Automatic annotation (TrEMBL):
Record has DNA damage as a keyword: no
Name of the protein: Helicase
InterPro entries, A to Z: Helicase_ATP-bd, P-loop_NTPase
Superkingdom, natural source: Bacteria
SUPFAM superfamilies the UniProt entry points to: P-loop containing nucleoside triphosphate hydrolases
Domain Helicase ATP-binding: 28-199
Sorted UniProt keywords: ATP-binding, Helicase, Hydrolase, Nucleotide-binding
Length: 464
């Protein structure tokens, strides 16, 4: 097979999911920005689509407008899944813009129109009963074998309209893209990887695009997903979408060190190198770090402290007057009550973990945050800061990092990962920008060619 023949073969594989949405697009709410309105229209034409958009670009409004249009066109029930506590935020957004939506806890509470719940209640719903399913913060599909991923992909296979929305996916995490394609019924993750990717020769856990398949892959992606970090990525003006400054402040804490993790003494501070050594350094410096963090907390404005260990969270909540701790052991209702209270200004200082509150919340009313327990997960740090540093924020965002001198180069590692992620995300958007702009603005349509393979046999009464 020649290279051209193989490229033609790949091209033939690319178009496997033609538009299956609405033929007639209803009039959309006038409050949508141009890029939001065009994305909604594109998603309605597609029927099953993904929106990978940066924080603050209006994914919630896109979801609500899309769901309202589908509900009105079909008369059916739409179910919108969101992370814990984000469902209440979505309800407030819907009420603000006059879009009918209701919070539901189980199947029997659902009615025609938009029904909003959280992922933790997934097992209480029969998804086949809904005309549309919307996934807010659809990065929940990232887990290869997670409960939510498996159930959503399996049970939504019969749902005619599907929308997945999240921030731009993790660069080079092509399995996340595959999970989205599989949820939307475009192509299974296995088939996507086999068609467009090969294993990295140095690490078989990493997938790399086949060199000659790169253009075809991004064209295929742009047929069912739109990706943007700012409106100008799709050719729209960035008016109102300029971020304020972000300042990161480092606060190294001196610790009187004792024996290292092996019980050995040294005249020099034992700098952690392994994960085990870092955990040891964090525990040994807990009291000093908590004390430093408490002293940095302002007395007259909202603040969120992000922790890594339970002891850090407990210590900060006790050291800061009026601080409220959101723990993993809290019930779902208790977590939601505390997070909503902070969102509405009834709690001034919140102490929690990125794994609990680091995704989905819009906290532009707060511009101060800090980390007293660092992690090597760039995504957790990035997402936590993005709760505040997002479009709609009007003030400089200040993020404090409190760490022990003995913790090693954690911040340097995070900075390196951030630079890599920015570079890779820019490449992904650059590859898809023109293609996505054409799709979203409706200048191209994905139509399968009609190639009849059987002759038409007319009945005898029509021949005569």
């Amino acid at each position: 097979m020649t290279l051209q023949a193989y490229q033609d073969f790949l091209a033939s594989k690319a178009i496997v999911d033609p538009p299956s949405g609405l033929d007639r697009i209803p009039q959309l709410p006038s409050f949508l920005f141009p890029h939001q309105g065009d994305i909604v229209r594109w998603g309605l034409r597609r029927g099953r689509a993904a929106v990978f958009a940066g924080t603050g670009l209006g994914k919630t409004l896109i979801e609500l407008a899309w769901g309202q249009a589908v509900a009105e066109a079909t008369g059916g029930m739409v179910l919108l899944f969101a992370p814990l506590a984000v469902s209440a935020q979505i309800l407030r957004e819907a009420a603000r813009f006059g879009i009918p939506a209701r919070l539901v806890r189980s199947q029997h509470e659902c009615r025609a129109g938009i029904n909003v719940t959280n992922y933790q209640k997934l097992d209480r719903f029969e998804l086949a009963a809904f005309v549309a399913v919307i996934l807010d913060e659809s990065s929940i599909l990232k887990s290869h074998d997670g409960h939510y991923r498996t159930r959503l992909i399996r049970d939504c296979a019969v749902v005619p309209f599907r929308l997945a929305a999240t921030a731009t996916p993790a660069p080079n995490d092509f399995t996340e893209l595959g999970n989205h394609a599989e949820f939307l019924g475009v192509l299974s993750q296995t088939d996507m990887l086999a068609t467009y990717f090969v294993h990295d020769s140095s690490d078989t856990r990493v997938w790399k695009l086949k060199g000659h398949a790169e253009d075809v892959f991004w064209r295929w992606m742009a047929s069912w997903a739109v990706m943007l970090r700012r409106p100008s990525d799709l050719g729209y003006p960035d008016d109102g979408y300029l971020l304020p400054p972000l300042t990161r402040r480092e606060h190294p804490v001196h610790v009187e060190w004792g024996p290292d993790i092996e019980g050995q003494f040294s005249f020099l501070a034992p700098i952690a190198k392994t994960m085990k050594e870092r955990l040891h350094a964090r525990r040994d410096s807990l009291e000093e770090r908590v004390s430093k963090a408490a002293s940095l907390t302002p007395h007259d404005e909202p603040y969120v402290w992000w922790c890594n260990l339970n002891a850090e969270s407990e210590g900060l909540a006790a050291a800061i007057p009026g601080a409220v701790e959101v723990r993993g052991s809290d019930t779902d209702d208790e977590k939601e009550r505390k997070v909503v209270a902070f969102s509405e200004g009834r709690i001034r200082v919140l102490v929690t973990k990125p794994t609990i509150c680091g995704f989905g919340m819009n906290w532009q009313h707060c511009s101060r945050t800090g980390f007293v327990g660092l992690t090597d997960s760039f995504e957790q740090i990035y997402q936590s800061i993005r709760r505040f540093w997002r479009f709609g924020q009007t003030r400089e965002v200040i993020a404090d990092f409190v760490f022990a001198e003995t913790e090693g180069a954690v911040l340097a590692n995070l900075a390196r990962k951030e630079a890599d992620a920015d570079r890779m995300a820019a490449a992904m958007v650059r590859h898809m920008a023109d293609l996505s702009a054409a799709e979203v603005r409706g200048t191209t349509r994905t139509i399968l060619p009609y190639n009849p393979a059987q002759p038409i046999m007319l009945p005898s009464w029509m021949v005569n």
